[in-house]
Amino acid sequence: MLWLTLQQLKSKSPRRRKRAVQKLRQLGNADVVEPLIEALKDPEQEVRQAAAEALGEGRDPRAVPPLLSALRDTATPVRESAIDALKRIGSREAISPLVEALRESNASIRWRMAQTLKSLGWQPKSEEENATFLVALGELERAAMLGKAAVKPLAQLLKESAYPKRVAAVDLLGEIGDPSTVPPLLTALNDSDPFLRRAAANALGHMGRTETVGPLISTLKDPDPKVRGAAANSLGLLADHRAVQPLIQLLRDGHWEVRVEATEALGRLQSPEALQPLLGCLRDEDKEVRAEAARALGELGDPGCVEALVNALVEPDVGVRQAAARALTKVSPCWEQLPAAREAAPNLWAALRQKDPAVQFAAAEVLRRLGEMPSASPPQPDKREAAISTLIELLRDPDPDLRRTAVQSLARVAGRRAAADLETALGDSDSTVRQAAAAALKTLQ
After folding, report:
1. Which pLDDT tens digit goes with each residue over 400-439?
2. H-helix or E-strand spanning residue 426
3. Is the separation of the CB atoms in 102 and 116 below 8 Å?
4. In angstroms, rounded to a whole number, what is the distance separating the alpha carbons of residues 313 and 322?
5. Maximum distance among all alpha carbons in the chain?
């Protein structure tokens, strides 16, 4: 019986050779070890894989050296089976070769090697070995806690397009913050995956390294708007004057989220060059951009923006009005005494004739502060309109419970007038707010 099976190992048919390996596995005696070791060299992948599995089941120490050689097999399934076999045999002879191979490019292979080392009771001898071991196990956060020692194994993950935790690896490299993380993060900035590019742009902004400014400026032309926005945000954090003009150019981007990020970044940079472009953003078609422009002008603190900010106090959007009010206080606590503030009076009087009671009330209040209207004369807003304004304001509150409550109430109080604000709430960071917004919009259909 054994003789016949051994003859079948020489068959020209891969199927017969594999069947012969399986028969040897069933025999399970010492005489089959050498033939199975020979089968590890078979030209057919399935035969080699079956031989590795059989040797693992036999648990004969003689199989360890050839199984270690099989770790270099060209076929991933064969290597996986060889590792599993070494784990079953449990020979400590396998430890050193497995440690050396922990930087294997295949994530599945690395994980199996790490698990085998774990079962053999191996302990890392250095922080570098420990970091490599933890990354192989997929425990990236624990590896990152080792600091610089984790940079190389984490950076290796960025080269593996199929690895599911590449974005997490980028985030952790950014948190480590060591100068050695800059090259792999700059490489990730040009990756084909927009999620990875965005993560890299965000990470570089928090590192404070001036050598990243040029690559981030180039990233402002990225085809993905979220990547462009992340690059703009990081340039604002780095506060390097070289970014001012590129960010000003970005104010014309077709995506409002990108314009918001560029506007915020220019506010952080506090460059006088940004004054006129930011004043132009107060007329942007998107209310979020207008509100951010008001906040950015407050950061600049230039009196030249006072008239425009006073005009923004009678904006239809409550968020813009509030941002303008805070910005004016930053520019000057007594802004209403500045001559530039009075230049806005004609626009304020015109706002009194608008149909929106909230705008009427805001205009009258500003005129009163400017001394243009007696304190008794401002009209009182309609209670319903005041409630709507308050609810819209609460949609931006940091507390998700308040935002959710505001969403639920807004649909009842404002009806279809609230549709635009409720649609914006569909993008809220909190899932319960998003669900409430979706339910509220259904009631308006």
Report:
1. 877 887 888 787 777 777 788 888 888 888 888 888 888 8
2. none
3. no
4. 7
5. 113
Task: Say how many residues make up the chain.
Answer: 445
Q: What is the pLDDT of residues 266-321, one digit of tens each?
A: 999 999 999 999 999 999 999 999 999 999 999 999 999 999 999 999 888 888 98
Residue 274 corresponds to which amino acid?
Answer: A
Long-range contacts of 405-410 (CB under 8 A, 24+ apart): 407/433, 407/436, 407/437, 407/440, 408/436, 408/439, 408/440, 410/440
Structure token pair of residue 345 = 């009076």
Compute the distance between CA of residue 131 and CA of residue 134 in angstroms, rounded to an integer: 5
Q: What distance in Å separates the CA atoms of residue 8 and residue 16, rounded to the nearest whole number?
A: 6
Q: Where are the domains of the chain?
A: 1-89, 384-443
Amino acid letter for position 349:
W
Domains 1-89 and 384-443 share a fold: yes
* Six-digit token string for 337: 């005494």
C-alpha distances (whole Å) from 254 to each of 223, 224, 260, 342, 418 are 12, 11, 11, 35, 25
Q: Which fold has domain 384-443?
A: Leucine-rich Repeat Variant (1.25.10)
Fold of 1-89: Leucine-rich Repeat Variant (1.25.10)
DSSP 304-371: GGHHHHHHHTT-SSHHHHHHHHHHHHHH-TTGGGSHHHHTTHHHHHHHTTSS-HHHHHHHHHHHHHTT
222, 231 Cβ separation under 8 angstroms: yes
